[in-house]
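Recall that a protein's primary structure is simply its ordered list of amino acids. Everything else, from secondary elements to tertiary packing, is in principle encoded there. The following example makes that idea concrete.
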Amino acid sequence: MNNSNNSTKWGQFLPLVTVFFFWGFVAASNDILIPVFKKAFNLSQGQSQLVSVAFYVAYTVGALLYMLISFVSKKDIVRRLGYKNSLALGLLISALGTLLFYPAANLNSFPLMLSGLFIVGLGFSLQQTVANPLAIALGSSSTGSQRLTLAGGINNFGTTIGPLIVTFAIFGSDANSETAIDLNTVKLPYLILGLAFALVAIMLKFSKLPNEVNDDASVENAESKSRKSALSYPQLVLGMIAIFVYVGVEVSTASNMPAYLENDLGMSISNIAPFVSLYWASLMIGRWTGAAEVFSSNKTILKFLKFVLPFLAFGVFLIASALAGKDLEPFYVYPVLIFVLIFADIISKGNPARMLLIFSVLGIFSLIVGMLTSGMISVYAFISVGLFCSTLWPCIFSLAITGLGNKTTQGSNFLIMMIMGGGIISWLQGAVADITSTHFSYIVGVFCFAYLAFYAVYIKKIFTKQNIALEIAAKGGGH
């Protein structure tokens, strides 16, 4: 879509970001379901991580189905249905998944619960395919990546309040509940969520969102024409592994946190929600910072927003936690770590390779500190991983597709498939926890960040061989 107007089409953009909110809400709510299912079904830590496996592997299965249907029908399925219709269809698929929670609770069936989450993820996969490029298209191409960043911030607003709302729905207002888990309490919140999916699908169907988007033609160059597949580019292949381990460490850090808080700090399931919420709010803090350009191009205002937006995002977390009746005192020290994020963002100067390296090293440092300490220091260290994951998706994505020319769309599809790392790495960390301890299991995340640091360094060598000069890459939103 070519846009001569520099402004964002807010009337179309605002309805679109509702789906970004849902992705975050459900993903973070899974971190509450994990300990609930673990106790209700008497699972090991590794088995409980099948919740993440079912949800995130669905993204890959969905992407493969999308490619297969497009291949068989000889036409891209999204272009056949249209952008708006594809979004609505994805939401309805996810709504069907939530309906399975009702019979699953009645039958006390863990496999049926996983099947419901898998179907929700299938719907999200189709929504992801549509919503990310559409967010970029709704306005000037010069601010497209910032719109995606803002959409990612809305995604993380969902991840922030999701654990709080789901915890309240399951346990009620009793913050110290230690009663036996009743799976019937899971039915109502997910039936309501399914109804919300359906209502938003109807809203989008009748919204002003475009059903067709005329994308700019892919840039052709001699090298891209000579390559038969995007997989012949080393920056993409190594970038696919990077996306796999990035989503993996982001998700596994949070999904294994409830077990650490329960086993090592003695917290009840109903009390862990604010800590899981702050982890996901940390991603919102980083991504809101990157969305500043959407609101103003004035350099003075931008500098102001770069400092204000992260603390505004932190304020959203505090307000949500206060409304949920949670004690805020443990979180007042967290702004110190937010200043570390801001400083790291400044010294990276927007260069994706430099930012990926700096934030990966900080992620390694945070996990090692968490593993070598105990009590609230270790909790803050593990939670701060969310801050240092906040900008990695756009960094990796932009590096991986740079230089692909007319293979860019194909490369993007391969990258989306790698979101399954969120489930596989979570299961791997859970398995390590069963063998050793939840505290030590965070060594898995250290290896993930180590690979990301390697990719940040090695990508420069790849680009040198291809005569690519990469200075500043656009920042994008969350997965």
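The CA atoms of residues 22 and 158 lie 6 Å apart. The radius of gyration is 21 Å.
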